[in-house]
Amino acid sequence: MNPNPLLGGLTPQQFLADYWHKEPLLIRGALQDVGPHVDYPWLASLAQQDDVESRLIECRGGDWRVEHGPFRAGRLRKLPATDWTLLVQGVNHHLPHIADILWRFDFVPYARLDDLMISYAPPGGTVGPHFDSYDVFLLQVGGSKRWQIAAQQDMTLVDGAPLKILKDFRVEEEYVLEHGDMLYLPPRYAHYGVALEPGMTYSIGFRAPSAQELASQFLVYLQDRVCLDGRYADPDLAWQAEPARIGEAMVDQVFDTLRRVSWGRDEVADFLGHYLTEPKAHVFYDGADEELDEDAFADAARERGVKLDLKTLILYRDGAFYCNGEKLEVEGAAVESWEILSNRRELAGEQVAVSMLKVLYDGWQLGYWHLR
C-alpha cells in the first residue's frame, strides 16, 4: 500500500503496526487544504441547534465552567476575548467537505470511526490537561496551539471539577501546531492544549465502547430475540417456616430456565451490525424532497446513481448489510453493489443492481441516501 500523506508518509500498515494504540505521532503539514473555511460565526450558529451536541468551556483563575448547548445567540456574542473554547460534535453530519475529511481516515475500519468534532478557541482557550479513552487525531486549522503530552500513569482527577482535569499533569513533550499540522494520540495519553492564536482543532475521534456498554447493549439486543417456552411452576412446593425466604428450589428452576438462553458468534456479529450503525439519539433524517414513484426513482437511480446521507453508515459482514440500526434485505446478485456503496459511500448509476432498487427506494424516502 502507498504512503498516506495524512500519516506523514507512512503506509497505513506501518502506522497501525508502530503507532496505533501505542505511541503518539506528530505529522507536520498533514492536511493543508481543508476545504471551505468554517468560521466561528458558522460554528456558533450550529451550536444553537437542538440536534447538535455542543459545549462551552471556560477557565478563569483555576475555576472551570462547562455549559451544554443548544446556546442562545446572545450567550455566544458576549464571550470575552480570551480563555474559552466552544466544542461542536459531529460537524461531519452538516458539511460535506468536513465529512470528506473524516472518511479520509478509512485506513481504520468504519466500525471504529466516530465523528469529527470542531473546537474553536481564542488565545488562552483550553479544556485543561486530560486524557481520552479512545484514539484521536488533532488537526490544527488556522491559528496555532501549544500541545503538551505525557505518557504518565497517574490519572488522578481534580476533585469537584465539572470535567475530567488531571490533578498532576507532568509534561514530557511539547509541540506548537500550526495550520495543517496534526497530532495523533493513543488512548489514555495525557495531553494539554492551549490556543496561542485564534484557531480551530478538528478532532477525529474513534469509537471505543466500554465492556459494560457492550454487555448492556447486547442484553438489550437479546431481549428482543429470546423466545423461551414454558412458565414457572412448582407442583411439588413444600411448606417453609420462613415465608420471606427465596427457596433454593426456585433458584434452581430459574437458573435452569436462563441457561436455555444461548448465543454464538453469529448473534454477536448481528448485534454489532445493529449497534454500530445505530444513529445517536439526536440524529434525524430528512425525507426526499422530490416526489417520485418507484418506477421513476429506479430510472433516476440507474441514470444518476446514489450517495449516502452524511449521517448514514452502512456496515456489512458475510453478505449481511446493516444501515442506521436496521438490517437490509439484500439479494445475492446485489451484494457487490452494496459493498461498493458501503465502502465508497456512493454508487454510480451503471453499478446499481436491479435487485437493490426496492430497498434503495425505501431508504431514499427515509432520507438515508440521495440521488447524485
UniProtKB/TrEMBL annotation:
Top-rank taxon of the source lineage equals Bacteria
Quick check: keyword Lipid metabolism in the entry?
no
**Gene3D superfamilies given for it?**
50S ribosomal protein L16 arginine hydroxylase, Chain A, Domain 2 (3.40.366.30), Cupin (2.60.120.650)
Keyword annotations of the record: Dioxygenase, Iron, Metal-binding, Oxidoreductase
The family database entries (Pfam families) matched by this protein are listed as: JmjC_2, WHD_ROXA
Cofactor(s) needed by this chain: Fe(2+)
Alphabetical list of InterPro entries matching this protein: JmjC_dom, NO66-like, ROXA-like_wH
GO terms for molecular function, please? 2-oxoglutarate-dependent dioxygenase activity; metal ion binding
Does the record bear Transmembrane in its keywords? no
Q: Which SUPFAM superfamilies match?
A: Clavaminate synthase-like (SSF51197)
What PANTHER family does the record point to?
Answer: MINA53 MYC INDUCED NUCLEAR ANTIGEN, RIBOSOMAL OXYGENASE 1
Which organism is the protein's source?
Crenobacter luteus
Coiled coil region boundaries: none
- Supply the name of the protein: Cupin
PROSITE patterns, per database record: JMJC (PS51184)
- Looking at the record, the residues that make up the JmjC domain are 97-223
